[in-house]
Amino acid sequence: MSETTYDVVIVGGGAAGLSAALVLTRSRRRVAVVDAGMPRNAPAAHMHGFLSRDGMPPLDLLSVGREEVAGYGGELVDDRATTAERIEGEPGFTVRLTGGRTLRTRRLLVTSGLRDELPPIPGLLERWGRDVLHCPYCHGHEVADQPLGLMGMAEPGPVSRSVHLALMLPQWSRDLVFFPNTLDLSDIDRERITARGVRIMDGKVSGLTIAEDRLHTVDLTDGSSVARSALFVVAAMIPDNAVLDALGCEIGHQGFVSTDPNGQTSVPGVWAAGNVVDPRMQVITAAGTAAAVAIAINTDLMADDCDPH
Fold first, then answer.
1. Is residue 44 domain-shared with residue 76, that is, in the same domain?
2. In the chain, how many domains are there?
3. Which residues of 17-34 are buried (b: 16+ CB within 10 A; e: fewer)?
4. How are beta strands 236-239 and 132-133 bridged, if at all?
5. Residue 126: domain span
6. Which reaction does it catalyse (predicted)?
């Protein structure tokens, strides 16, 4: 391949992508990180659960990470990867960007994350990451002992995240109102939730009332309103896997890419890490897992470097 070929192109410059880039640049690999600048946690003012960085604004973490990667010679490309394809007759890939540039690389790591798709209810998107929340591990402590709400939704499959959260959230506040919304609660789940001291308000949510830039009430279609300080919402989590789809990577449960324990996809030379693989990963786990995947990629490249053929 030409001298302009990267060892690794990383699609996605969030915590996972930058963590992998840091490991690889420190391993003296030539790395490019392609990032569209739209991290999932951008609306949140603070990041929690990251040892030594608890309470840090998430964009500040990324800013520091970008500086560190650049300091070791990594190239940061502010653009969006639209597709990728294998180079015919060569063991590498091309990655095409929205701006028209094409990158050549020996290995590809996709850390493009996911997007949270909220129900089209007025007020949810505007308050997302502020007092409309999704993860008690990320935000529960900050709203502890306040009047909380949980809005559920119907989901495919046997496991309901709505019910799971309804049973979990009383750890943070005993004043919890569960709005099943579009979820059809079973009698057993209704009994379990009620036994946890949670009040259930049937009916569909119509919107939120905001007063003085804070959540005031959760409003229902029957005209009733319930005063709440924060509302947890079960959002649909959609992986940003367009590049993985273009390469023909095997897609598994709920549209998330399948990988082996080292992060390798079904397509040789293509790896994935972070929320594009597992929606449950928080910032610290995405970063840590991606660092381990980066070591696996470097080992794979080393084997290629040592191959006499």
1. yes
2. 2
3. bbbbbbbbbbbebbbbbb
4. unpaired
5. 119-233
6. [thioredoxin]-dithiol + NADP(+) = [thioredoxin]-disulfide + NADPH + H(+)
> ∠24-283-112 over CA atoms, to 5°?
65
In a shared domain, residues 106 and 211: no
Helix, strand, or coil here: 81?
A: strand
Could you tell me if 263 and 108 are in contact, meaning their C-beta atoms sit under 8 angstroms apart? no
Taking residue 42's Cβ as centre, other Cβ atoms within 10 Å add up to: 14
Beta-carbon count within 10 A of 220 CB: 18
Of residues 10, 74, 87, 7, the one with CA closest to residue 305: 7
- CATH number of the domain residue 297 falls in: 3.50.50.60
- 179 neighbors 193 (Cβ within 8 angstroms): no
The rounded distance, in Å, linking the Cα atoms of 167 and 146 is 17
Could you tell me the two tokens for 58? 């998430």
Distance separating alpha carbons of residues 83 and 89, to the nearest angstrom: 19
The position carrying tokens 């591990």 is 137
Is residue 1 a part of any domain in this protein?
Answer: no
Q: How many CB atoms lie within 10 A of CB 176?
A: 25
Predicted local distance difference test score (pLDDT) of residue 90: 80
Per-residue pLDDT of the chain (309 residues; tens, 9 = 90+): 444 799 999 999 999 999 999 999 999 999 999 999 988 888 888 899 999 999 999 999 999 999 999 999 999 999 999 999 999 888 899 999 999 999 999 999 999 999 999 999 999 999 999 999 999 999 999 999 999 999 999 887 777 999 999 999 999 999 999 999 999 999 999 999 999 999 999 999 999 999 999 999 999 999 999 999 999 999 999 999 999 999 999 999 888 999 999 999 999 999 999 999 999 999 999 999 999 999 999 999 999 999 876
